[in-house]
Amino acid sequence: MKDEREVKKKIDDAGPFSLVPKKNWLMQYFYGEKPLWKAFWFIQIGGGLIPAALSILAVLWHLRAPFRVKSEYFLLLIYSVNLSYLLFAWIAVWRCAPNSKYQLFSQLARILVISHAGYYLWKFFKIISVIKF
To answer: How far apart are CA 125 and CA 120, in angstroms?
Structure first.
């Protein structure tokens, strides 16, 4: 046990020239190494505003575009792009949920992830059911 701690300390003390790759800050969220409040507010809520804003800009562009794509396909594209970010955010919040001082917040975060994922996936499949491929 003592040898493992010494090896870990040596690896940690190796600094920037270490052979062990360090995780970037996004991957720390993905692997659940950050506090829940940061994962929820920065990744889920704050980070979710970026795809939402891009979606609004894309819809505005679509309405003024000189060529038309069927709206269902365009909506499916927007939902697919947003889904890729949301999958990351949901996994990050879910894995960071145990990193809270209060058990209630851990449970609420997971309930919110399940409800948001359920609603979003329901809307996604509703769009797919409308499209005639």
So the answer is: 9
